Amino acid sequence: MSHGGASGDRGAESSPYVELERAAWAALGSAAGQPLTDVEIERVRGLGDQLDLAEVEQVYLPLSRLLSMYVEAARRLHHEQEDFLHRTQPPRTPFVIGLAGSVAVGKSTTARVLQHMLAHWPEHPQVALVTTDGFLLPNAELERRGLLHRKGFPESYDRKALLRFVIDIKSGKDEVEAPTYSHLVYDVVPEQRVVVRRPDIVIIEGLNVLQPAASRPDGRTGLAVSDFFDFTVYVDAATSDIRRWYTDRFLRLRETAFRDPQSYFARYASLSHDEAVAEASRIWDEINGPNLEANVKPTRSRATLVLRKDHDHSVRWVRLRKL
Question: Is the Cβ–Cβ distance between 283 and 258 less than 8 Å?
């Protein structure tokens, strides 16, 4: 990596990516103008434990401006294509952003911040956020299939339902529903649905959203959710850092959410500090770590843009695929 600009060390012309250190990336946002008021920035800061004002201004402001440019370019192309086809101009289908990364890397915070910031650009005020947790198979079904210990792995999702949801979004349906998931009870909530009504942008956040289509038994390849994304983001960090962040989060939850008697993980609330660290390490080593290495990390190269975090959760550099 070079320091302060594109990846000059490696030769800018020899890579299909542009890589920018944090300072160079942050400078891109200075000309965009801050779309949030001070009060709104404070609200955004409250979305994530590891988010501060500098991160919002230096990382997410330029990213929201870049994404807004992509949305506007897609809208122009839509109009030109409809003119070319001599068709009456139907509404442009929502611009879909896929956002992936490991458990505990902070992708949910990234998704919520982007949703909040993108909605402030006047060109696209309606921004929906859907997490793929709602498309996990119910615990009873996972147990029936012997997959409860592999929750979060690709096979633990209702991939056909998720694909149908994204196809309906990109088909321009007026209203599309998605299931919801409760982290308290650690299961899908069948009676609750997220209703998406003709948004300008949809952010779909999840571990495995960038995966290519699986091969069928007959050798054919079907469609993947990622085939319908207009832009993709991967939140990246060193595995050792993510593992530590997962343990830290587990310890915080032990003091908060796990103390709720309704929590699926209430049994962990009584663990000592050392016991909790040991249990978090076991879960990481048996489930989250293997899933990251086998399924999540291999999709990083498919992303349009990679946000690489440092040991303190701050974004250190950005890699963007060239057009």
Answer: no
Beta strands of 166-270 (E only): which ranges?
Answer: 175-182, 187-197, 201-205, 231-236
Q: Which long-range contacts (CB under 8 A, 24 or more apart) does 178-182 make?
A: 178/130, 178/134, 178/135, 179/134, 179/135, 180/134, 181/131, 181/133, 181/134, 181/136
Architecture label for domain 88-307: 3-Layer(aba) Sandwich (3.40)
Across residues 77-96, what is the average pLDDT? 88
d(CA 209, CA 233): 10
Question: Do the Cβ atoms of 6 and 305 come closer than 8 Å?
Answer: no
State the pTM of this model.
0.91
Single-letter amino acid, residue 240: S
More confident residue, 180 or 125: 180
Average pLDDT over residues 79-106: 91
